[in-house]
Amino acid sequence: MPTIEQMSNQFAKEIGSEMDAPSFTAVGEKPKSAFRDYEQAGIDRVRTFYRTNHIHQTLAFVLEKKSHWLAFQQRTMSPWAALEFLNTLVDESDPDIELPQVVHLLQTAEAIRRDGHPDWFVLTGFLHDLGKVLCLFGEPQWAVVGDTFPVGCQHAEEIVFSSYFNENPDAHDPRYNTRLGIYEAGCGLDAVHLSWGHDEYLYHLMKPYLPIEALYMIRYHSFYAWHREGAYGYLTNEQDAENLRWVQAFNPYDLYSKSANPPVLSELRPYYEDLMAKYLPSTLQF
Ligand code: FE
Ligand code: FE
Predict the structure, then answer these.
(1) pLDDT tens readout for residues 82-96
(2) Is residue 235 within 8 Å of residue 183, measured between CB atoms?
(3) Burial of 109 (C-beta count, 10 Å sphere; 0-12/13-18/19+)
(4) How confident is the prediction for the chain on average, in pLDDT?
(5) How far apart are the CA of 254 and the centre of ligand 2, in A?
(6) Which ligand is nearest to the CA of 253?
(7) Ligand that comes closest to the CA of residue 97
(8) What is the CA(83)–ligand 1 centre distance, in A?
(9) Which ligand is nearest to the CA of 104?
């Protein structure tokens, strides 16, 4: 839960006044139960965010977004330039932090590196939220960040703030509101449309370059109803079941590395530039 000071700093950012930057809590000061605690936090910002998200993320909306954004007609950037571009964004859906995005990416990646994981895993930590550049291309945050969920079938109760789905037209459409909806049992998540957001966008961008385990982490890291709550198992196949552990292995780095003292980007830049050069082309088409 953010402190009053952090919340007022967030508010200051939203209204554009000049106040001191938020202070950062050191790692270990915050109990794990205090992360993602939407109820206790009582942050109207987060509730409003999820209400808007849950009302508008229909199957038709997702299909339209896929045809628009997955044409990759925005701009050409080097991976590093994209990270710098992303750094101006504050994620409204997240009750825990008001950190610059690159700091969050660096903290995630550095925690993975400290634990001795393979370099592609470290790189995945460093890139996993890069899809949030969609916000900077004009997409509203409720269509970019926050937890994801399948569309075209019943909304599981395990989804955060699931009561807001009452206002989603698909929840009242008999084609889409049954357990399977438009899908077949065991069809595999690759055949399932998730609510539109940064995960799916970055997955398609990174698909040619990273191993399948990394792609699972990127594509499903916001699908908490599946990787944390165990919902929607009836849509998954063997490949999903095998890779679930990678998504779950990634999650603590995404969540609990957030409050650390910010690492120094300039010191770490050479390492991460080399890592990007090993796996990615010099420019990406966004
Ligand atoms: Fe994310
Ligand atoms: Fe993240």
Answers:
(1) 999 998 887 666 655
(2) yes
(3) buried
(4) 86
(5) 5
(6) 2
(7) 2
(8) 14
(9) 2
CA of 248 from ligand 1 middle (Å) equals: 14
Distance of CA 239 from the midpoint of ligand 1 (Å): 22
Residue 10 counted as domain residue = no
Q: In this predicted structure, what is the pLDDT of residue 262?
A: 77
Question: Has residue 9 got a pLDDT over 70?
Answer: no
What is the domain extent for residue 240? Answer: 30-281
Q: How far is CA 157 from CA 61, 67, 165, 169, in A?
A: 21, 29, 10, 17
Residue 9 lies in a domain: no
**Within a domain: residue 243?**
yes
Average pLDDT over residues 49-54: 96
In a domain, 124, yes or no: yes
Q: What is the pLDDT of residues 176-210, one digit of tens each?
A: 999 999 999 999 999 999 999 999 999 999 999 99
The secondary element (H helix, E strand) that includes residue 285 is: strand 284-285
The Å distance, Cα 121 to ligand 2 centre, comes to 14
Question: Whole-angstrom Cα distance, residue 213 to residue 45?
Answer: 33
pLDDT at 138: 95
pLDDT in the model for residue 4: 30
What separation in Å is there between the alpha carbon of 220 and the centre of ligand 1? Answer: 9
Give CA–CA dist 77/83, Å, rounded: 10
